[in-house]
Design a protein that fits this description.
With about 290 residues, the chain is α+β, with helices and mostly antiparallel strands. It has helices spanning about 5-25, 40-75, 85-90, 90-120, 155-165, 260-285; strands at about 125-135, 135-140, 145-150, 185-190, 195-200, 205-210, 215, 225, 235-240, 250-255. The strands form 2 sheets. The protein has a 5-stranded mixed sheet.
Amino acid sequence: MKKFRPQHAIAGLVASLGATLAAAAGQPERWQLNMTQGVTETAQRAYDMHMIMLWICVVIGVVVFGAMAIAILKFRKSKGAVADKGFVHSTRLEVIWTAIPTLILVVMAYPATIKVIEAYNTQDHEMTVKIVGQQWLWSYEYVGEGVRFTSRLDRHSDRLRQSGVKVDKHDPENANYLLDVDNRLVLPTNTKVRFVLTADDVIHAWWVPALGWKMDAIPGLVNEAWTEIREPGIYRGQCAELCGKDHGFMPIVVEAVPREEFQARLAAMKAANDTTARTASAEPALAGPQG
């Protein structure tokens, strides 16, 4: 039997924590310890603010629990300590320990408020995407481009979930089980994209963690959001509002590509839409008059 070596255990723990934290820079991972940094300015702002608040809380925790430890160990009755009644009822001390936390909250609230305001500022956007939530799929439209399509759970995942078989997610073929769609939302990188969101039936919520925000899609109401994706890649999300029996089967997939590739993909989608429209308009003529 091998002898237990604490230094090896500690090294292994540090390595595993490092790997987990490193994974947080991309898509969410199982057992991830930290927030996902994401791939947008909004996500990065949220991550930076989270880290600032985290270290402030760490410092506060060290000071508070350190003071508690000193008080418990050094000023205990068994060492002859006598309670200081003046300390407990000191007006000056009570003012200090009320003023300092208030100051800390104000200092923390200011940058947080600025970042929240910036997160909702859709000015200077370069394109607009309309998103409509429906039971249980998403419809997308590139506003002003004449391109619209629906996006629903891919057929492979749908077939597996309805078959009742146990799905092995370690199988590469099922790695994105319930997280893939038939039509991805393709967006250009380094482009400020404005989203307008609504719903046809019940409340849905459009959420892709890597983008750093979540927005409700509400019938009769139009919400706004924006994103600017910095890195090409495929980013997955799900509906985050309980919207009915198939709520868990309403994934979102965003594919970010360079601008040149996006323009080519958009042209192909326009051509496909034009072909479909011409075919649909020709069908009544081919059928002839109905008598």
